[in-house]
Specification:
single chain; about 220 residues; mainly alpha; two-stranded antiparallel sheet; 2 strands; about 60% helix; elongated
Amino acid sequence: MWGVSYWVFPVISGLCWLGMLMGLLIHWTSTGKPHYPSMDATQSIAYISDVGAQSLKPLFIAGSCVTTIFLDASFLSERWLRHRGQYREHRILRISFWIKLTFILLEVVLAIAFGTCNFKDKYNAAAVLEWTIAFIFTFYVFSFFIDLLPAVKTKHDGRRFGDGQGETQMQMEQNDEFSREEGRGGRMTGESQRTVGGNDVRVVNGAKYENGPVPVASNF
């Protein structure tokens, strides 16, 4: 069971945003796609703000506020989990990064196209792009679910980042590398004290001494 954890914040935020958009769009289409006073004379497709400025203004305001609050809570949760050591490094976070980057690049391209259409008075095309950008933003919000889901497994103190069984793969690799380096250093020290060819030959600091005590000065 996942249980209730920080992952609920982006889910609530995304659902509120998606519900608000669907409510506005369904209301506009079900009422016969009216031409609002805020729309241009040549415009037949309403902007989100055109629909939200009419009778569904409370839905538009409330949906936007709730979306913002829980999305901010997602950002703060990520920072808090890192601070407490419960935000474990995981391969799924790399996947989440590429997903977000894809959404961001796509949104930037669509935003440029929206601005261009709006500047050239192509309001219908601009309205379609605005609705598209808004719906794609929903999936960007949902992507934070991937970031916060691993925190479910690090609720207990014993499984926090860097503690016992909660040690990350990156830390384990670093510790293994340190152990190998330390082992090689130990073997080099041991080899310098071995006998050579059955004779009592010792090698200290690169110098060989046969059948006799090592000068005190040679140890330094």
